TrEMBL record:
SMART domains, per database record: AAA
The species this protein was found in: Xanthobacter dioxanivorans
Flavoprotein keyword on record: no
GO molecular function, one term: ATP binding
Domain ABC transporter per the UniProt entry, residue ranges: 19-253
Alphabetically ordered keywords of this record: ATP-binding, Ion transport, Nucleotide-binding, Transport, Zinc, Zinc transport
Gene Ontology biological process terms, A to Z: zinc ion transport
Protein name: Manganese/iron ABC transporter ATP-binding protein
SUPFAM superfamilies: P-loop containing nucleoside triphosphate hydrolases
NCBIfam families in the cross-refs: PRK15056.1 (NF011630)
Top-level taxonomic group: Bacteria
């Protein structure tokens, strides 16, 4: 059943200094194996897209990296540490999908962000000046300071995402996992989140971002992991985002528009792939918008 890694994956550098997943298999209690022999490596100082259809194993992978689920085979390491050690040292944070959070729970925005500091506190969890300062700085960075006294349930979808990102920043996480950060977010907020992620990348952090917005991946993700029950391919987005790879990952789910190219200078060079919101434009079988995130190559 295991699809072979694409030749691209074999050529990519093997630096797993950020996230390293080696031959990981995860089986749920009911016997369902959601991930089989998954392998990829991501250096620090990068933003990597995690791309796959519904049910392909993205959340399973996140939960495994966060230590919520155990792998029956294989190993995960974060910044060279085991998952248990990474959790102990507070280096990894998870920004959840909106559906995973109980928004009726009465808690203030600043309290949610303070949760990111728990691992830095003694077991009594009494915040010190440094903790308050970290919360303030994190809220400032996501432009949410004025909402600090609001109940979390009284925020818009985009504001909620920013609060959970602030929690990861207050924690000073070096590895940040983001589950569908752009769902229900307007274009302006999406741009603001992307700008922030790029700044975090340039600080040497590593981010793994699951998204269905294929069109925005080449804009801000220097690397991509394609997943479908296993890792189909991983490496530089500019090399991974080919029509053949995407069709393997998405099967019939992906819509492929063939434009009328009869008037184009070089017919056969332009294609548009989409699964929902943002279409991906391929020019000569490569992302048309690629290159903006590639500047991070060599960082870390
Ligand atoms: N608790 C569970 N017990 C058994 N099987 C599960 C459980 N959670 C998920 N699965 C199955 O594992 C597979 C992968 O699910 P997962 O949630 O990781 O997919 P996903 O890529 O995150 O999907 P989506 O894009 O819809 O969020 C699916 O077939 C799903 O039905």
């Amino acid at each position: 059943m295991n699809a072979p890694l694409s030749p691209t994956a074999a050529r990519v550098d093997a630096d797993g200094s950020g996230i390293s997943v080696e031959h990981v298999t995860v089986t749920y209690r009911n016997g369902h194996t959601a991930l089989r022999d998954a392998t990829f490596r991501i250096p620090t100082g990068t933003i990597t897209a995690l791309v796959g259809v519904n049910g392909s194993g993205k959340s399973t992978l996140f939960k495994t990296i966060m230590g919520f689920l155990g792998a029956s085979r294989g190993t995960v390491s974060l910044l060279g540490l085991s998952v248990a050690e990474a959790l102990k040292r507070n280096v990894v944070a998870y920004v959840p999908q909106a559906e995973e959070v109980d928004w009726t729970f009465p808690v203030l925005v600043e309290d949610v962000v303070m949760m990111g500091r728990y691992g830095h506190m003694s077991f009594l969890r009494i915040p010190r000046q440094a903790d308050h300062a970290a919360v303030e700085a994190a809220l400032g960075r996501v432009n949410m300071l004025e909402f600090r006294k609001r109940q979390i349930g009284e925020l818009s979808g985009g504001q909620r995402k920013r609060v959970f990102l602030a929690r990861a920043l207050a924690q000073n996480a070096r590895v940040i996992l983001l589950d569908e950060p752009f769902t229900g977010v307007d274009v302006k907020t999406e741009d603001a989140i992307i700008a922030l992620l790029k700044a975090l990348r340039d600080e040497g952090r590593v981010m793994l971002v699951s998204t269905h917005n294929l069109g925005s991946v080449p804009e801000f993700c220097d690397r991509t992991v394609l997943i479908k029950g296993t890792v189909l391919a991983y490496g530089l987005t500019s090399e991974i985002f080919t029509q053949a790879n995407l069709e393997q990952a998405f099967g019939g789910v992906l819509r492929h528009f063939v434009l009328d190219e009869s008037h184009a200078a070089t017919p056969g060079t332009l294609g548009v792939l989409t699964d929902d919101e943002r279409p991906l434009v391929l020019y000569k079988d490569r992302p048309a918008a690629s290159g903006t995130a590639g500047s991070s190559e060599g960082i870390g």
